[in-house]
Amino acid sequence: MSCVKELCDSRTLTSIPSNYVFSTNLNDQDVVVTEAEEVIPAIDFSLLTCGTPEQRTKIVRDLGKACLEWGFFVVINHGMPESLRKAMLEVCQDFFHLAEEEKREYMGKQVLDPIRCGTSFNATVEKIFFWRDFLKVFVHPRFHSPQKPPAFSEISWEYCKRTREVARLLLRGISESLGLEDCYIDKALQLDSSLQILTANFYPPCPQPELAMGMPPHSDHGLLTILLQNDISGLQVQHKGRWVHVNALPNSFLVNTGDHIEILSNGKYKSVLHRAVVNKEATRISLAVVLGPSMEATVTPAPELEDSHNPPKFRGMKYKEYLELQQSNQLNGKSCLDRVRVQC
């Protein structure tokens, strides 16, 4: 099928095609609030890496509280140059503006192809499509990159290396917050060979945004997702049964916990449901970097977090198998995680 950008460029749209209309989009039962009504946790990354012992103890506690209560937080003072973040957004925008025949070189056929671009989420099984084009690139343990635009490889290599460093240090803090050794997650899930995926999302203006959906409510596979977006907002996070509309602080990253944090923590920390809404004025671009376990790691609850009152809540599954399961089906809430949940 055609990508959304091609659809938008091909004619002047006044309404969206019927196969993009979501009957379960924003409706009267949805409660959407702003950040002014909900205080989203902010984590000062510099205190985690360079703070005094007292400051680090407090920030680890704050990190644990954010994972427990939200599954989502904002990371400030992360040390990545703003020039690199801007360059990464620009080079991804340049990719989506390539001619369609150039992008078709990267239309992967398998969900685990290391470079794959497309539209919606899994257009081969969907009847209703999302107002979104994407590029997915495996960047670790082996680095891949499209050859066009020419600057993509160099910029994405540096950007992904730095986000991986941020994610691994955050995971050390999360490990400590669970009462585990700081290196527990790193060693148990073989993060030296962790799978890291860069996903660039392109949401062009939509003539009927109230009928369309950029991405439906879902949780992410993996451990942490580090999100960067341009100045156009569209991310909503579910918190206490309500959708919170999120705008990033200047120079910050948005971070959410994934399904494999929920599994490893034996359900103490939950992966967070989130969705992307669209607008009719401007294109939104977001870059999600997912850090997961090693593809060959079998993820189970940490034994230290199990006891007679807390039996294992999830059965083990190799990360590669989990990823194939999620990416091969329709995206639907936490349905993939439910497949490995132990039924009481």
From TrEMBL:
Limits of the Fe2OG dioxygenase domain: 193-293
Keyword S-adenosyl-L-methionine on entry: no
Keyword terms, alphabetized: Iron, Metal-binding, Oxidoreductase
Classification via PROSITE patterns: FE2OG_OXY (PS51471)
Keyword Lipoprotein: no
GO molecular function: metal ion binding; oxidoreductase activity
Alphabetized InterPro entries for the sequence: DIOX_N, IPNS-like_FE2OG_OXY, IPNS-like_sf, Oxoglu/Fe-dep_dioxygenase_dom, Plant_2OG-oxidoreductases
Gene3D superfamilies found in the cross-reference section: B-lactam Antibiotic, Isopenicillin N Synthase, Chain (2.60.120.330)
UniProt family annotation: Belongs to the iron/ascorbate-dependent oxidoreductase family.
UniProt name for this protein: Protein DMR6-LIKE OXYGENASE 2-like
Organism this protein belongs to: Nelumbo nucifera
